[in-house]
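$ ./design --mode recover --in tokens.txt
reading tokens...
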């Protein structure tokens, strides 16, 4: 397999890494609008680099729109999540994901129907409805929920690992996403050096994929670094390079 083919085969996993990157929000229910940028490095046998941007905008009706866009070589990704924050609880309304690799596209939409406790999934030209439970999140709002929980009840340094688990509407199924505190590190960024809480994604004992995310309390728990390792030894990394608060 050529390097070019190898890169294409990994792009769906890489796009998943860009999703993880979104776990960076304000530390209270009164969220601050922002724009942020990340650089990325991919080790696929050759060294590649890319970039990603994200933003959080508060709408006039009080809802929030979280958007990320990413690009690298022949691929692009855009994802958005519309949600409300009520009593520190996340109430997702609509989620959309768009990915393009060469001429191949993938579009996914998830619309929440809370009175019926259902979501409507649309993907590949087909639609179907699935049941959910109270507190169900989408693939971006789960990241928001984790960040709020870290900010509200911070894990003490050198304490016993703490696990956070959430119900997520993902791929037409109700899945459990789990994360565990894994220590603390000082991370170098263009913005300065920040002490950051290291979180590990718990995919179960059988999974050979590993993901770590570093949240910086001094930056309202913004993510400053992400590292993902695949079962075949390939490695991807995201690094915060710019952060602008849009609030006055």
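writing sequence...
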């Amino acid at each position: 397999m050529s390097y070019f083919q190898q890169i294409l085969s990994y792009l769906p996993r890489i796009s998943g890494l860009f999703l993880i990157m979104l776990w960076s929000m304000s530390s209270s229910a009164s969220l601050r609008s922002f724009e942020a940028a990340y650089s990325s490095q991919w080790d696929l046998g050759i060294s590649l680099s890319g970039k990603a941007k994200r933003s959080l905008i508060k709408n006039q009706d009080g809802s929030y729109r979280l958007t990320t866009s990413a690009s690298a070589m022949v691929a692009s990704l855009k994802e958005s999540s519309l949600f409300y924050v009520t009593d520190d609880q996340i109430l997702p309304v609509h989620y959309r994901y768009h990915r393009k690799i060469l001429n191949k596209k993938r579009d996914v939409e998830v619309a929440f129907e809370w009175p019926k406790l259902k979501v409507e999934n649309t993907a590949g030209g087909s639609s179907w409805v699935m049941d959910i439970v109270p507190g169900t999140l989408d693939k971006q709002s789960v990241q928001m929920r984790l960040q709020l929980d870290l900010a509200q009840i911070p894990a003490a340094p050198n304490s016993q690992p703490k696990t956070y688990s959430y119900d997520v509407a993902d791929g037409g199924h109700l899945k459990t996403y789990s994360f565990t505190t894994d220590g603390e590190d000082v991370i170098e960024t263009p913005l300065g050096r920040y002490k950051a809480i290291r979180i590990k994604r718990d995919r179960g004992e059988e999974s050979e994929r590993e993901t770590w995310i570093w949240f910086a309390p001094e930056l309202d728990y913004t993510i400053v670094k992400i590292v993902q390792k695949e079962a075949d030894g390939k490695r991807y990394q995201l690094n915060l390079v710019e952060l602008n608060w849009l609030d006055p």
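exit 0
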